[in-house]
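Notebook, p. 212. Picked up where the previous page left off. The plan for this session was modest: take the two constructs that came back from the sequencing core last week, fold each one, and keep the raw output in the notebook itself so nobody has to go hunting through shared drives later. Recording the first one now, exactly as returned: residue sequence, then the structure token string.
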Amino acid sequence: MGTPFRRYVRFGSFHLDLQQQELFKDGSRVRVQGKVCEALLILVENPGEVVTRETLRARLWPTNTQINYDANVNTTVNTLRQVLGDSPDRPAFVETLPRKGYTFIANVDSLAKPAFTAATDLASSPHAPEGKGFHV
């Protein structure tokens, strides 16, 4: 029968809508864009497992892209840490495994739906951002 589709996951004080690709902290939308969003999805899909730098590179940038992959992986993960309020020295979410990759170390729980209604909570916020929290 297969694994049921997970639409929402929770980790720490964050809720992630996998289908709409929106991240919320304590019911407020958190803006996450581009490759940072994609990196978060890859890590959350594989909690407790090593996600190699090569896996991130392959999934985030096509092979014909002319960039410095190492610098871009580092920048992407550092930006993700800033969004999550995480630290490489005392990680709560993303742990670095030197020369290997990264592990999402927080507990990730599947949810039927979050404890809040995003449309209601965001509509009532005077600072609700335009568009989706994730921009892929």
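Okay, moving on. Second construct, recorded in the same format:
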Amino acid sequence: KFVDKRQWVSACEALSNTAISARKEGRSVLSDRLIHASLQFATAIASLENLNGFDARAVAKAYITANMPKKALEVIGKVAEGQISHWVLYRKAEAELAVEDFDTALASALNAFDLANKDSKAKSHISSYHKLLSEIYERLGKNRDALLEAENAVEKCLDGQFKEELTERVSTLKGMLA
């Protein structure tokens, strides 16, 4: 009620991002509260008649963060074909991975990666796409491909803290292959 409707998407995404950070820091109670707040915005946005790709991406992220991947896929399903960007496909692949539709997740992630490579605004985030591909390959039992994508993620990562997380992933995958 107190947040202007034009700010709902920003609020939804900010709350989701903060919830993810809180979860990484082991602050589960705070994370749960933030997720609950983000879902209030997500539900309101999802109920709107016209849902563009930008809005759907933020709503899908909130649902994925809340471990509600089927809801994320429903929201993404409302987006018109011409509004599907690599950002939306990335969230779609995450949701498909969460519902264990691995082959479809891989197809969505590869499509997202290809589109992201053509978008100069996405270059600084391309390591996230490699990480997602790595996770999907791992779930498919293709650990060598998972390792290759994890190594690509490290190589292209610009964020120090994220790079540490990716480096740990590479070590874990190398251990699995040893």
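Notes on construct two before I forget. The chain is about 75% helix and 0% strand.
Flagging for discussion at group meeting.
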